[in-house]
Amino acid sequence: MQILPFDNRDGVIWLNGKFVEWRHANVHVLNHGLHYASCVFEGLRIYNGKIFKLDEHTERLFKSAKILDLDIPYNYQEVVDISKQIILKQNISDGYLRPVVWRGSEMMAISAKKGSTNLAIAAWEWPSYFSPKKLLEGIKLNVSKWLRPSPESAPTDSKAAGLYMICSLSKHEAEKLGFDDALMLDYRGYVAEATGANIFFVKENELFTPLADCFLNGITRQTVIEIAQENNIKVHERHFELDFLKTCDEVFLTGTAVEITPVSSIKQFNFEERKLTKFLISEFKKKVTS
Q: Residue 132 — pLDDT band, cuts 50, 70, 90?
């Protein structure tokens, strides 16, 4: 299947105050965000022409920018309004929205406080992250050699582009070995998350999920916990060692891209049950389309 490259598409992208033809929405190669990772972003799903959890994602974008000392030159409401405008311009019914903030090209050094802060917002049609067949089967996870860093060594409560390098390395290695994705442990050896999604375990019809103290408390993760609480399903948030997987009945990932995706195995651990996962998928679909 031929993949349509992201630099050669029809439509427009909102870039620093105006709608720019998609193919012309470019930045200089010597921008600080590319060289020094002074860049944050968000990923939002669009369902039936409506952006899911737009307020929460926009708030997190501003929080991430503040953590990285990036001063977004537009206010919260402007970003919300532009996000709504771009999906109308692109005529997106079901798709994906990507706001991205980065430091510009005025200074090429570690310290670049005088550099500009730039904002772009793009939207495109995007189906499920995994194929329907793969979702039915469940995905297979490797265990990455890369660890999620501690809050003292990286801005782990931001959605910063630089934090995703070890995720790419982990996923590439997993795919090379025949897996779909990878489970990442944290700097203490506890279960953390997948490369771009949070993880949940099911045991005796209760939910267990790692405490989000060195990785993002995902918005889809929060939504699943909310659904569980609405349905009197107990949720346990704490640290888990890898051996905890031996006693689990079901495993699934949550995230804007993956939504709720069943996991069939993590290395030697297999998970064939889907009962609670299927229920949560059904309830989640109601949430995003209401």
A: low
- What 3-state DSSP class applies to 134? helix
Please write the tens of the pLDDT for every residue from 5-30. Answer: 999 999 999 999 999 999 999 999 99
**Those residues with Cβ within 8 angstroms of residue 226's Cβ, 6 or more apart along the chain or in another chain:** none
Query: Can you give the pLDDT at residue 3?
Result: 72
Domains of the chain listed by start with CATH number: 12-125 (3.30.470.10), 132-289 (3.20.10.10)
E-assigned strands of the chain?
Answer: 12-15, 18-21, 39-41, 44-47, 50-51, 95-103, 117-125, 139-148, 181-186, 191-194, 198-203, 206-210, 235-238, 250-255, 259-266, 269-270
| pTM assigned to the model | 0.95
Taking residue 72's Cβ as centre, other Cβ atoms within 10 Å add up to 19
Residue with token string 């793009």: 122
Separation between Cα atoms, residue 63 and residue 72, nearest integer Å: 10
Picking from 74-88, 125-139, 207-221, which range would have the lowest pLDDT averaged per residue?
Answer: 125-139
Q: Give the integer Cα–Cα distance in Å for 171 and 49.
A: 31
Tokens 């910063």 -> residue: 160
* Total Cβ atoms within 10 A of residue 290: 8
* Residue 203 is a catalytic residue: no
Q: Return the sign of the alpha-carbon dihedral for residues 137, 201, 154, 62.
A: positive
Calpha distance 259→288 (Å, rounded)? 10
Catalytic residue, chosen from 159, 171, 246, 278, is: 159
> Cα–Cα distance between 198 and 287 in angstroms, integer?
19
